Amino acid sequence: MLSARDLRVRPAAEADLAALVRLRDDAARRLLALGVTGQWRPGELDEGHFRRVMAHGEVWLAEADGLLAGAWELWWEDEDAWGPQPPVAGYVHRLMVDRATTAPGTGRLLLDAAERRVAEAGRTRVRLDCLAGNAQLNAYYLDAGYRVVGHKAGKPQPGGTPKSFTLMEKQLG
Questions:
Q1: CA 127 to CA 36: how far, in whole Å?
Q2: How far apart are CA 129 and CA 28, in angstroms?
Q3: Which residue in 32, 20, 167, 160 sits closest to 96, CA to CA?
Q4: Tens-digit pLDDT profile for residues 113-156
């Protein structure tokens, strides 16, 4: 297993698209195996999804020893969940970890890296939405210092039906 201290973070590139799709599909299969059926489905997102995010936001990869350890999307606005907002936050989406190759705690390190990127961009808050029915995931983000600031019912989903989310925020610095 890879050690979390060996992670290297970099922006995703066109050559990473297939790996991102594989990572997302593997995470979706893991969730289904754990009985989390309302969140992600394999095959739901394709390379075009990540290409579109890279055109309007950022996709970040974490690697260790040449292997993909995880990834996340960073958006600079998210009106579907949060409505129009002043430019004070970065929005983390699709935090994914390759559990087959990484050590426990890797997800938190990815989240820390996302928070640093938001701070580097001069924004003071990190926001995310978490599937309302996934109590374990909601607790994970609460434990990472996020607080519940609202709920969003019926948020549109790429390739799927609208879902309800818990809106969470963390103040930086």
A1: 23
A2: 17
A3: 20
A4: 999 999 999 999 999 999 888 888 899 999 999 999 999 887 66
Type of residue at 67:
L
Residue 57 to residue 19: CA distance in whole angstroms? 18
Residue position matching structure tokens 């994914």: 96
| Model pLDDT for residues 74-125, shown as the tens digit of each residue | 999 999 889 999 999 999 999 999 988 888 888 999 999 999 999 999 999 9
Whether the full predicted model's pTM is greater than 0.85, yes or no, is: yes
How does pLDDT run across 31-43, given as a tens digit for each residue?
888 887 778 889 9
Helix/strand/coil percent split, the chain, to 5: 35, 35, 30
Nearest-angstrom CA–CA distance, 141 and 56? 25
Total residue length of the chain: 173
Token pair for residue 117?
A: 């990127």
Count other C-beta atoms under 10 Å from residue 162's C-beta.
Answer: 12
27: left (phi over 0), alpha (psi -120 to 50) or beta: alpha
The rounded distance, in Å, linking the Cα atoms of 12 and 52 is 12
